[in-house]
Amino acid sequence: MLEGLRTAAAGMKAQQFKLDAVSNDLANANTTGYKRLRVGFSDLLYEQGGRPTISNEAQLGTGSRAVQGGRTFEQGNLQRTEKPTDVALQGPGFMKVKLSDGRDALTRDGNFQIDANRRLVTSSGGFVTPTITIPEGVDESEISIGRDGQVLAKGQAVGRIQLVNVRSPQNLESVGENAFVTTARSGNAVAAPATTVLEQGALEGSNTDMAQAMTDMIEAQRTYQLTSKAIQTADQMMEVANGVKR
């Protein structure tokens, strides 16, 4: 029965992890360029049943654990803003940016602005790399961003938003600020495929599926409750066994 308690406790912890992931998805349902988390489960080690079983070959499971499989990089819906410095990615890939702490990163959040130094920056204070500087006297309405990322100010080329991709996006590391950094498992950033383009005056919405997220939340909650009930039942059985011994 002690094994049953440990097994149930492991299952509850796994379901709690899934609930946390679903809660994070729901909280970011309106976050530009957000990609929902992928959570799966795997069983833990098995042990020989021992004396309570008929055969030594009988095995008892020790529960489950949650496995985060990265993120689902499905395309989010495009939302028109008509703001010249807003861009939305269509197709696989990312835009290269430098975070406010100096790290190189990738993002699909194209909510760009012009800072006091006339640089094209992210909403969290990072900036596009290579740096794109808008000349003095150029109004936002005079900025044009092509589908290939080229930025024009009054018809003059001032830089290009770099479109890149990685071998395994699911293995990118999330670092906040709607950004990711590459890892050894994700591979380095390389040029995005030709099918990846930018749409000026639009932003890519979150790909969180509200209906699916609510279904996952209810499923995890019910499983958590049932596992909790198993712990209560095992505890009652142990109480009965202890009473028999007395």
TrEMBL record:
Pfam families per UniProt: Flg_bb_rod, Flg_bbr_C, LlgE_F_G_D1
UniProt KW keywords: Bacterial flagellum, Cell projection, Cilium, Flagellum
Family under the similarity heading: Belongs to the flagella basal body rod proteins family.
Identification of the protein by name: Flagellar hook-basal body protein
Cellular localization per UniProt: Bacterial flagellum basal body
Flagellar basal-body/hook protein C-terminal domain mapped to chain residues: 200-242
Cell membrane among keywords: no
